[in-house]
Design a protein that fits this description.
The complex is a heterotrimer of chains A (432), B (538) and C (155). Chain A is α/β, with parallel strands linked by helices. Helices cover 42% and strands 12% of the residues of chain A. Chain A is built from 15 helices and 9 strands. In chain A, strand 5 (244-251) and strand 6 (257-262) form a beta hairpin. The relative contact order of chain A is 0.12. Chain C is of the alpha+beta class and 155 residues long. Helix content of chain C is 45%, strand content 12%. Chain C has helices spanning 5-15, 25-36, 41-51, 55-64, 84-88, 91-102, 144-152; strands at residues 76-81, 115-120, 132-134, 137-139. Chain C has a 4-stranded mixed sheet, with helices on one face. In chain C, a hairpin with a 2-residue loop joins strand 3 (132-134) and strand 4. Chain C starts with a helix and ends with a helix. The chains are: A alpha/beta (432), B alpha+beta (538), C alpha+beta (155). Chains in contact: A-B, A-C, B-C. At the A-C interface, strand 3, strand 5, strand 9 and helix 12 of A face helix 2, helix 4, helix 5, helix 6 and strand 4 of C.
Chain lengths: 432, 538, 155
Amino acid sequence: MGLKVPYVTNYLTEHCGDDAFATLEGYEAKGGYATARKVLRGSTPESVIELMKTSGLQGRGGAGFLTGLKWSFMPKGAEKPKYFCVNADESEPGSFKDRLLLERAPHKMLEGILIGAFAVGAAKTFIYIRGEYAEPAKQVQRAIDAAYAKGYLGKNVLGTGFSHDVVLHRGAGAYICGEETGLLESLEGKKGQPRKKPPFPAEHGAFGMPTTVNNVETFCHVPHILANGAEWFRGIGTEKSPGTTIFGVSGHVARPGLYELPLGTRLDEIVFEHAGGVPGGRKVKGVIPGGMSMPILPAGQLDVPMANEFLRERKTMLGTGGIMVMDETTCMVRASCVISYFFRDESCGQCTQCREGTGWLHKIVTRLERGAGSLDDIALIEDVCSKMEGQTICAFSDAAVWPLQGMLRHFREDFELHVRHQKCPFPESFEL
Amino acid sequence: MAQITVDGEVIEVAAGRTILQALDDAGLLMNGVDVPHYCWHPKLTIDGSCRLCQVEVEGIPKLQIACNTPVKDGMVVHTKTERVKRAREGVMELLLINHPLDCPICDQAGECKLQDYAYEYGVPHSRTKEPRRAAKKRVDLGPTIVFDQERCILCRRCVRFCREVPGTGELAVFERGDRSVIETFPGTALDNPYSMNVADICPVGALTTKDFRFKIRVWFLTDVPGVCTGCSNGCNVHLGVANNKVYRYLPRRNDAVNDTWICDAGRMSYAEIGAESRLKNAYLRNERGVLETAAYKSAIERAAARLRALLEAKGPGVIAALASPHATNEDLLTLRRLLDAAGVQNAGVAVPHWQPDALLVKAERAANAEGARALGFPDAHVVLDRVRAGGVDALLVLGHDVLDPAYLGDPAALASLDTVIVLDTHRSELERVAHVLLPVRVAAEKHGTLTNHAGRVQRVRPAVEPAFEAYAEGEVLARLGALLQLPGFDGKWDVRETSRALGTSSPAFVGVDVESVGEQGRPLATVVAGASGTGGRA
Amino acid sequence: MVITPELRSRIEAAMRSYPHKRGALLPALHLVHEQAGHVTPETARELAALFDLRPAEVMEVVHFYNMFYDRPQGRHHVYVCTNLPCSLRGARGLLRALEAHLGIEPGETTQDGRITLGHEECLGACAYAPMMRIDGTYHEDLDVEEAKRILDALE
């Protein structure tokens, strides 16, 4: 089953509809690898990092950290081998953009890797791809093999003296491996349990070596920024959040799919104009703007530009740009049930608050959904959330409580109705 | 070095330490500065997962876990703020939502960190409505340990212990999230020479030893500091005592000796103290050659009479002695003085050996072989050679280590002697050849010091009183000396005085006596050169 | 012996891609699953020997990941994504229909050993819901009848 091409494309996803673009020849035919060639032959690592910093590119994996700054944390010099990791563990519910890039533009990612590796002096890149992405993994492996054959990877890349290896590593089904240190543990053949910090990956990362982890889409921006310059990049999107990103729209919309749009595009524009709004004349009830970890926005707050500086004002975040639309039939307690089940299922189990809290929250929300809860239970959810937030090794626990806090912030009434009616008052809601 | 301030108190700490380590180094942890913790253990790698040790660090917005936050010069730490208190309450409540709360039937009650901290930091009532997580009860983990999965709080100390200390790695956390459980690999047991330590480090009642569980409630026990006498390492222990009985050894922390560990064999050696095989009566061999019980006093007098007869008839050259490597330095000094006063030069010590390991177990299977050597007792072979050559008529034997296969194996070689006087803690084959048998006290029944393989002098003290007439070897020998009318012997024996005399008798012992060594022991002033060779001297 | 010389050499080749050979443990477990479908205690022991690990360390990794199994599975894994985007578009109904069709509950295997049915967390196909993963292949934009046909066609 072929992966659907974005409804709206821009520089990142241009040509993704063309099967040949996934091949090395097809990619070269569209000018691919020309930037890497130029950078490796004519630039210094420092100038690449400087350009990346100036560009203001924010990582596209969810946290939105500045990519150039992250690269600059890598130690200089070559006492130890340094590694790059690509986070292709895309598992945030509502997110499916990296899958497109992995399948349809693998060489663009490889070119970004090559430029980045040159900039930080990395000897090797591990692409950590989620285990369920079997087809994308095949495409990426094919691309890696082709790049080796053509001299883009391996020893003495393009005769420049720079050497770089790329290894594709398949995960095996664990959401937490998308957390960068969980990813590193998993890469090392262990359970994907996030590491306590310090030490940080840039100092002690994969196999004990300095390591930088970046998301697939993040790497795909790199060749474009190097080719067109930081000014060009900053000309797209908002002042603080430059560039495009690939929004994934799912749920109750007429045209679910991928949309590459500048950051700062308004959420209502994406939902109603691009994705066609809710089918069947129904109204929107709420929209999760950035993957399931991010708090929901009610229908009245969709007039927000999709960039962190604006979303934060509404107590939510861009995350991975996975937009989930829920129509007026939706029971938000039921949605909370699905959300809390997911986080209970995927908690790695290390930290007390997360291990025990995710389980407890799921029990309380389930009780409320069944109509067996009380008003105290609603307060209890808030209290348990406050005990889980900001106190654990990684941000998973935060991610588990933010969406529930959002639900209570905007749809508390749904919870109270369940208590009052002692059953779910939304007969037309999706099935659980 | 760095300076940090914790709750207003300035602490000097070594660079590279974390806040919790710094508090531990300074001896303040849970002893002035309360930072409760489960997963952190001073002798295991930092885990950082229980999240109970969160503290407030000025300049850092989020609470930080004290176990993993490196100290920086000038760092200001608060452990008692409202935020900290609330974080602890949160952790405690979440730990308790799935805990069975079966304290009344739990053997850990009384020394349970969940109980303690819940009392100190917990919320007073339960807010859960659903059933608690059901898990396996009474899992037979191996020859020594029983596991209650429901009580487990997943601090993973036991998992790390098995991987990091004995290196056997039997335990792992299977599954994930709130389904996580600690298990052994299918079909295998927790079975290593240090396995019982997991019960000590388990902060709750999840892991208990088969040996101790349900024997007695811990609040009836008095902890008496002492030393394990199983080998020459001299691991520091607490003897758990009630009703004049030792119920268990728990390792007592001594970073110079045993960290916080003890081997299973040593731990179980507490049973020797109250064993049926203790020598409980004085015995004399009668005219028909049969041993019969005797009053202690008459047995010592008989011993003295036989020795005096030989001294007068043949002189001290026909008398020899074997020191016990289990006796205290004070006992052995008294033996040394007795022999010197009588002019007996032929004396040594028999030290049994066993298989050592790289961790704690030392080759010499006795607590004070090093002390015996420091007091001038060479290896017993010099004595036994002379016995075999027919040059000995009387042998004074402390302990029965000479029966070790490396020495005699069998007492037959002593059968032809005119006089064999035995002072012993336990019964042995020496009964076949002894003319006089005198029960003496084990280390747990007396004051004194023991010198471990590395020359560290450590204190023992009476935890129990023997239920039969028995004295320290030193006291018996003091009375014997008096009966022999030897110079310097008046029949009285004061262990403290004797201990102080160690320093004047042997330069090695200067400054180390029963009072001055404290609870952590002190090294000998000079280590006896080349004496051991097998002890893995550090 | 589960790890044949041929499998062993493939695992050893994978080890060379990593600075420490343990990095190849997940690849090795994938290879074992391709060949044997699940990891028995015996296999875990053999892997442990190969990786200089303890068997418990191999087994805890097996337990941590959804795609590794410590007990026999059907010849095909059929997983319906039931996360929120898919649930909003009828995934639970699809799963129930497939349960009824196969006569098994999630987590169970058909008596003929053909199919193990389950539900899975988000598979990255949110816009193409409802969907299911059969082994390495995604089937998207499903309706119940089409899904049944796909299942019936499985060997």
